[in-house]
Amino acid sequence: MRLDDERESDNIEDQRGSGGGLGGLLPGGGGLQLGGRGLGCGGIAVVIVLALVFGVNPMQLLGGGGPVGQPDQNTIGQPQDAGAPAGARSNTDKFVARVLATTEDTWGRIFKEQVGQAYRDPKLVLFSGSTRSGCGAAQSAMGPFYCPADQKVYLDESFFDELSSRFGAKGDFAAAYVVAHEIGHHVQNQLGISQQAQDLQDRSSKTQANAISVRVELQADCLAGVWAKDNATILDPGDVEEAITAATAIGDDTLQRAAQGIVVPESFTHGSSAQRVRWFRQGLSGGTIRGCDTFSARDL
Question: Does the global pTM surpass 0.85?
Answer without folding.
Answer: no
